[in-house]
Amino acid sequence: MWNILYYRTLRNHEQKPWVTFIHGAGGSSAIWYKQIREFKNHFNILLIDLRGHGKSEKGLWKKGDDFTEIAQEVIDVHDHLNISSSHFVGISLGTIVIQSVAKLRPDLLSSMLLGGAITKLNAFTRFLLILGNIGKRILPYMWLYSFFAWIIMPYSNHKEARSMFISQAKKMCQKEFIQWFSLTRFVNPYLMELQKDFQGIPTLFLMGDEDHLFLSAVKEIEALHKEVKASYIKKSGHVCNIDQPEQFNTAAIQFIKEKNSLKLVI
């Protein structure tokens, strides 16, 4: 048996649609604690810990691994569970993983809900990542991670999300952090390629109106791609599922139900 990521399922009913949650870098499936109670009333839930995160195995990296290998590991979990289609909900870097899954297996995704989506890195973000790549092998990874958490989630109403991600990141190790951080070196061209084609998959961006690093890029995508939708969550930063869970849950559940009803009609 090949290495399979740690996962947890919460089954509602066999006829209910599946919803797969994909966390961001340094997090784990635990970051969805404000979604599970509401979502499990409507859907079957699949929670996954990405490689090196949470309870998934560390040390899976091989030379040349990128988002393609990470996405394939997510696909493998679905194949292992005989889940033929699911609505995918992601946050932050998890949205890149989801779009990478869509590139490999578009038939697996009933819809994409991309929270705090990373679709383009502006000049300031690229500068920060250059500094991070210089310091990643010298500085303790938690110093770097905490620094980036404060940059991305700077306001007082982002404190809970910031603290949650920092506490989850402590479960990683320096080598895993370096591998994940290394993915950012050439990510901008890859992001541009992903945004060219949404594979005909119904897509909703869920963005906090205080997500100062990534919000403007999503607004550009919304203007260019009429087939995608965006919901802007008030008084919320990058990790909008924690900052404003009620707004996030309402928008996400409504979108999934609408798209699932259309699928049934067709």
What order do the helices and strands come in, and which of them pair?
Layout: E1 7-10, E2 18-22, H1 36-39, E3 44-48, H2 67-80, E4 86-91, H3 93-104, E5 109-115, H4 123-135, H5 141-152, H6 159-169, H7 174-182, H8 187-194, E6 203-208, H9 215-224, E7 228-233, H10 240-243, H11 245-265
Parallel strand pairs: 2-3, 2-4, 4-5, 5-6, 6-7
Antiparallel strand pairs: 1-3
Helix pairs in contact: 2-3, 5-6
Structure summarized in a few sentences:
By secondary structure, this protein is of the alpha/beta class. It has helices at about 35-40, 65-80, 95-105, 125-135, 140-150, 160-170, 175-180, 185-195, 215-225, 240-245, 245-265; strands at about 5-10, 20, 45-50, 85-90, 110-115, 205-210, 230-235. Helix 9 (about 215-225) links the parallel strand 6 (about 205-210) and strand 7.
How would you characterize the overall build of this protein?
- This protein has 266 residues and is an alpha/beta fold.
- Helices cover 44% and strands 15% of the residues.
- It contains 11 helices and 7 strands.
- The chain has helices at residues 36-39, 67-80, 93-104, 123-135, 141-152, 159-169, 174-182, 187-194, 215-224, 240-243, 245-265, and strands at residues 7-10, 18-22, 44-48, 86-91, 109-115, 203-208, 228-233.
- It has a 7-stranded mixed sheet with strand order 1-3-2-4-5-6-7, sandwiched between helices.
- The radius of gyration is 17 Å and the shape is globular.
- The N and C termini lie far apart (38 Å).
- The mean pLDDT is 91.
